[in-house]
Recover the amino acids of this structure.
């Protein structure tokens, strides 16, 4: 399963064998043997041209058995649409799953230039991207530090240093906002806020990405406030749904 998660990080471009070895901490023969077994079951496949490994059809077909596997997305949908309409830029919903942040929803706004920095389903080590920083910042310091340390090998493959992630998380924890003035794509910017959970931590994170000139100081404050309103509304709706289910 750990190897499958690493393969999934490659999305449609796939993941190289050398990176799977480095990120997993397993030796090359072991990784190759596991990959071969997974390929025989259709759980992964290998691109004939690039030799990279990708998630196979069997995993996708198994996932169809749980079409309602992300209740948070269902509850958050109207608020994401409203936020995208209000700010005009692209809105993302991400959740934490183990050591990763996963994008489970994306809604575009009305501005002519939309920053589609990541696809739905993208899985990244926590702390890579503002959504992961916001999720880590919602955790106790000791827990977030342990997660960052556990991801050290994967972060190294991505050119990230644990100390830099720690610094971003500390800043986000103090402000309640994770902000990247320079986003994943040149000329873009991104900001994320956590969706508060009923027992601390975060249910997920709401992110807005835009061209950098659309998140200047004055507008940035307005956008963040709208994001916080949406995050609180999603949290409230989640609590109501949970209470209804218990009743």
């Amino acid at each position: 399963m750990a190897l499958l998660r690493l393969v999934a990080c490659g999305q449609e471009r796939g993941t190289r064998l050398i990176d799977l070895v480095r990120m997993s901490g397993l030796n090359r023969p072991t990784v190759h043997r596991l990959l071969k077994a997974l390929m025989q079951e259709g759980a992964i496949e290998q691109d004939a041209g690039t030799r990279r490994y990708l998630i196979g059809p069997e995993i996708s077909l198994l996932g169809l058995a749980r079409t309602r596997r992300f209740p948070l997305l269902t509850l958050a949908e109207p608020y994401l649409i409203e936020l995208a309409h209000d700010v005009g830029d692209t809105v993302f919903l991400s959740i934490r799953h183990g050591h990763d942040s996963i994008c489970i929803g994306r809604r575009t706004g009305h501005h002519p230039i939309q920053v589609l920095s990541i696809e739905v389903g993208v899985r990244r080590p926590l702390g890579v991207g503002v959504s992961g920083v916001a999720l880590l910042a919602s955790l106790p310091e000791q827990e977030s530090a342990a997660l960052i340390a556990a991801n050290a090998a994967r972060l190294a493959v991505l050119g990230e240093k644990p100390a830099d992630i720690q610094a971003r998380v500390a800043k986000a924890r103090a402000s309640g906002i994770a902000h990247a003035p320079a986003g994943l794509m040149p000329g873009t910017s991104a900001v994320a806020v956590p969706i508060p959970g009923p027992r601390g931590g975060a249910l997920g994170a709401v992110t807005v990405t835009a061209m950098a000139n659309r998140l200047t100081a004055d507008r940035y404050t307005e956008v963040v406030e709208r994001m916080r309103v949406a995050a609180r509304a999603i949290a409230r709706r989640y609590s109501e749904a949970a209470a209804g289910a218990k009743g």
In short: The CA atoms of residues 135 and 194 lie 6 Å apart.
